[in-house]
Amino acid sequence: MPQINLVNHIEALIFSSVQSITVQEILLALNAIFEDSCNENQIFESLAAIKEKYASNNFVIELVNLNNGYQFLTKKECYETVNQLQLHRSKKKLSQAAMETLAIIAYRQPITKLEIEQIRGVNSDYSVQRLLEKELISIEGKAETPGRPILYTTSGLFMDYFGLNNLSQLPQLKDIAKEENTIGETAE
């Protein structure tokens, strides 16, 4: 392998990536530049070095493994500060309808717009369109039912935005539901 500072190149790739970047994407980018001279072990060693570097209290960011990839995020101690800035800059908030639609897609994916509308009880055209524009959902294909409706799923950006590695990390409904919201008496 030519004399290159692999850590710096990987750090630059992670820094410049809007979403989490996978080891395979890093390997592809580096091997395109350095003529197939990098391997996965070198990437993992470099990632460990970067993670250790940013673990220091001298940095306000850290390397985090998200959605089977890596991304720089602000450390938790600075959450409130960054949150204040984001609150002031937030111009593109999701409406209640969009949040409901996103939750339905996240828990029931892949799902058609008709199924979303049956669950919500109202037209969801606008919400689905906004979620597609924000790249929080994506089109997976078409259902094998009459009319071949489009199937929607959550995207990688959804996973990054909510800090999830996989969908099993979504809160389970039983964890969120409060017992006082039940109707009638409970049987013993």
How large is the share of residues in beta strands? 5-15%
**Helix content estimate:** 40-55%
The rough form would be described as: globular
Low-confidence stretches: none
Structural class: alpha+beta
Largest sheet: 3 strands, antiparallel
Order of helices and strands: HHHEEHHEHHEEHH
- Alpha-carbon distance between the termini? 69 Å
Class of the largest domain in CATH?
Mainly Alpha
Q: Which superfamily, in CATH terms, is the homologous superfamily of the largest domain?
A: Winged helix-like DNA-binding domain superfamily/Winged helix DNA-binding domain
CATH architecture of the largest domain: Orthogonal Bundle
Pfam family, one: SMC_ScpB
Keywords: Cell cycle, Cell division, Chromosome partition, Cytoplasm
InterPro entries: ScpB_csome_segregation, WH-like_DNA-bd_sf, WH_DNA-bd_sf
Protein name: SMC-Scp complex subunit ScpB
Q: Which features would summarize this protein structure in a list?
A:
alpha+beta; 2 domains; ScpB_csome_segregation; WH_DNA-bd_sf
Describe the structure.
- The protein is of the alpha+beta class.
- It has two domains: 6-79, Arc Repressor Mutant, subunit A, CATH 1.10.10; 96-176, Arc Repressor Mutant, subunit A (Orthogonal Bundle), CATH 1.10.10.10.
- Helices cover 47% and strands 13% of the residues.
- It has nine helices and five strands.
- β1 (61-66) and β2 form a beta hairpin.
- α1 crosses α3 and α5 packs across α7.
- This is SMC-Scp complex subunit ScpB.
- Keywords: Cell cycle, Cell division, Chromosome partition, Cytoplasm.
